[in-house]
Design brief:
The complex is a heterodimer of chains A (284) and B (389). Chain A is α/β, with parallel strands linked by helices and 284 residues long. Chain A has helices spanning 7-16, 23-35, 49-60, 75-78, 84-97, 102-105, 115-121, 138-150, 181-185, 197-207, 213-228, 237-252, 257-263, 272-281, and strands spanning 39-43, 63-68, 80-82, 111-113, 126-131, 152-155, 159-162, 168-173, 188-192. Chain A has 2 domains: 7-79 and 114-192, Rossmann fold; 197-281. Chain A is built from 14 helices and 9 strands. Chain A is elongated. Chain B is globular and about 85 Å long. The chains are: A alpha/beta (284), B alpha/beta (389). The interface between A and B is large, with 47 and 42 residues.
Chain lengths: 284, 389
């Protein structure tokens, strides 16, 4: 089902719920909703990939369903599992009555829905987030292909479960591993970059409302400069927000802004060597 | 209002765009092209930038290809009055067969910016010719191959059924019990099998390693062919990933192809810069995590070794173990005393001889011991001041 939102309405809604997206991301989300295709988001850690799905769910007033990937994840963790203990109890109890029908054992009450099945069955009312797909192994990636292209899954005991409409699906990857092209082909693609200073400032001010304008300006400039340094781990937007909030706490305790920012530097740079590099550069 | 002729022209341009990208080396298949045309219909197109974004989202599958995409987009759509007529997207557009258009212009742009893919015949970057495998080498390689079973392994995360496994497989046990009226007659077990640990080989192929790069690459070929999870990179003046080339069945053929691919044989050395470059690509850096990393280099960095020390320290932090393989260690009296080596010593786990295939065979046998030894052994071995001096 095409989304009721127009391109511009989507843009406005995203901003209203606190996500300041760049134009390409809005286009990507709009097309994903219109075409009924999954959207693959890549980008450095902490640029708000996961937040896109949560915000989208809020805007569409749907339930967010999250599947966190990890090495070794398989169908029983992603799709469905049978409640074995209850099945056995049921057999024991039914035995007393004298008859056990196999079909009873595969009744819906024994089926444990995992995220993918849940999303399929509630296609119209949910947003599925498949988070950090790069952490799962290749086998799981291949397993996802049927789901992503046809929005259906085959369960031996029940049959094929098909979604009544395309599931709104967001996949994220931190690029710790190269994804297979078969997966990429089934998805729309967007790379989320670090935001330009003006947008980052809007984000910080939105999520850390206590911070003074002058301090926000200083903080955003410093973050942009820090990202240009040769660091092991570059700070994402999440770190900027944490930093702003921490500085705000210190400021309320009476520290002047520059001092508060300096003292809470550990929230934006989380590696000893990086800290030294940043201190040497004297950005604040 | 756009005329019929301009709309037809716009349709032609749109339909031809995916194949222009294909010409430029991007993998655009038919389903992506169809998605793009669909997107061009439904997305609100007010100007070229809108169209560019719709194309970027639908036609490109990887961040690296954005530059190429943008260049092709500019070359394809720039001179046309398309921006005036894109709003007429509600009119019927019959996509005609694609058409060649200024492909040379596109290619010029690409070669200026994203030349990495095309092998340039730059005279400054010499090519290296490898000989055929000699009889002695063949015997040495065969011996090496027998030692491969000993290589580092890692416990997999995933459980598989195994009779003497450490854990009970509840799902399987319950399934079996159902067929015996709920009576558990047999416990099924499962375990996490060992899976091979990744081996990452970083081979210095610069001038000073000239005499040894062939042995190194033959060694790399043997490992790549006989084990999963082996990654090889060559560096000298620039960095190249050679894993795919080394997968070729015949060692001589693989090495012959490498001589065409690795441009910087016998060129200068920039160990620090090459390793920094390697680590700056997050996809590559991810390969280091948990791997046993072998750096094949003499560590003779020109100029200031600070960058090299920094990069190697980071490599060591990411790796499970970091082993420095240097031909200089063939001399029993070798001490890593150059400024660069001395600086790196505290973070390296072992310094071993890599002068020829026999030495590399000894390295292979020593690997399991190095993998389980405490970290930083090399520093303890060489770090203490020599008593004889």
């Amino acid at each position: 089902m095409p989304s009721p939102l127009t391109h511009d309405a989507l843009d406005a809604e995203l901003a209203a719920s606190g996500y300041f997206a760049d134009e390409t991301l809005v286009t990507a989300l709009y097309l994903a909703l219109q075409l009924g295709k999954p959207l693959l988001l890549e980008g450095m850690p902490g640029v708000g990939k996961t937040e896109v799905a949560n915000t989208l769910a809020r805007i569409l007033r749907r339930e967010p369903i999250r599947l966190q990937c990890y090495e070794g994840i398989d169908a029983t963790k992603a799709l469905y599992d049978w409640d074995h203990a209850r099945q056995l109890l049921h057999v024991r109890v039914a035995e007393r009555g004298g008859k056990v029908k196999t079909a009873d054992l595969y009744a819906p009450e024994f089926l444990i829905e995992m995220p993918l099945l849940k999303a399929l069955r509630n296609a119209g009312t949910s947003v599925l987030l498949i988070d950090e797909i790069d952490r799962a192994d290749d086998a799981f990636e291949a397993f996802l292909l049927e789901f992503l292209s046809d929005f259906q899954i085959s369960i031996p005991e029940i049959g094929t479960v098909r979604a009544t409409e395309p599931v709104v699906t967001i996949l994220t990857s931190n690029r710790t591993r190269e994804l297979h092209d078969a997966l990429r082909r089934r998805c729309l693609y967007h790379w989320i970059d670090y935001p330009e200073p003006a947008r980052e400032r809007s984000i910080v001010e939105r999520h850390a409302p206590g911070i003074a304008a002058e301090a926000a300006e200083r903080l955003v400039k410093a973050v942009a400069a820090i990202r240009r340094l040769p660091l092991i781990k570059l700070p994402g937007i999440a770190e900027s927000i944490d930093w702003a909030r921490a500085a705000d706490v210190l400021h309320r305790d009476g520290a002047p802004w520059p001092d508060a920012l300096k003292r809470s530097l550990g929230l934006i740079v989380k590696d000893q060597e990086d800290l030294d590099t940043v201190r040497e550069a004297e950005l604040i | 209002m756009a005329t019929g002729a301009t709309v037809a022209r716009a349709a032609e341009l749109l339909a031809g765009f995916p194949s222009a990208l294909r010409e430029a080396g991007l993998a655009v298949d038919a389903s992506r092209a169809a998605t793009f045309l669909l997107a061009a219909r439904i997305a609100p197109l007010r100007n070229l930038a809108d169209l560019s974004r719709a194309g970027r989202v639908t036609l490109v599958g990887s961040h690296e290809n954005f530059a190429t995409y943008d260049a092709v987009f500019r070359a394809w759509f720039a001179d046309d009055p398309l921006s005036d007529i894109v709003e007429a997207s509600d009119e019927e557009k019959a996509p005609p067969a694609s058409r060649r258009r200024d492909h040379d212009a596109i290619r010029d742009i690409l070669e200026g910016e994203a030349a990495g893919k095309h092998a340039s015949d730059d005279a400054a970057l010499g090519r290296k010719a490898f000989g055929q495998t000699s009889e002695a080498d063949r015997a040495a390689l065969a011996r090496l191959k027998r030692g491969l079973g000993l290589l580092p392994a890692l416990e997999a995360r995933k459980f598989v059924a195994f009779d003497r496994g450490s854990r009970i497989d509840v799902a399987r046990t319950a399934r079996a019990a159902r067929s015996t009226a709920g009576e558990t007659l047999r416990l099924f077990r499962k375990m996490r099998p060992d899976k091979p640990r990744r081996l990452l080989l970083l081979a210095d192929v610069s001038g000073s390693m000239k005499a040894h790069s062939e042995a190194t690459l033959r060694f790399a070929h043997l490992l790549t062919r006989s084990r999963p999870k082996v990654e090889t990179f060559c560096f000298g003046t620039r960095l190249s990933r050679v894993t795919a080339t080394l997968r070729h069945r015949l060692p001589d053929e693989a090495l012959a192809r490498l001589s065409g691919l690795v441009f910087d044989f016998d060129g200068g050395t920039r160990i620090g810069a090459s390793l920094e470059e390697f680590l700056s690509v997050s996809r590559y850096a991810a390969l280091v995590r948990g791997a046993v990393t072998l750096v094949f280099s003499d560590g003779l960095e020109r100029g200031d070794p600070a960058a090299m020390i920094h990069a190697v320290s980071r490599l060591a932090r990411l790796s499970q173990r970091l082993i420095w393989v240097t031909p200089l260690a063939a001399d029993p009296g070798y001490r890593p005393l150059t400024r660069g080596m001395a600086g790196m010593l505290p973070v390296i786990d072992a310094v071993v001889d890599g002068s020829d295939l026999a030495a590399l065979g000894r390295l292979l046998r020593a690997l399991p011991a190095i993998e389980t030894a405490p970290r930083g052994e090399a520093g303890r071995r060489f770090g203490a001041p020599t008593r004889s001096a």
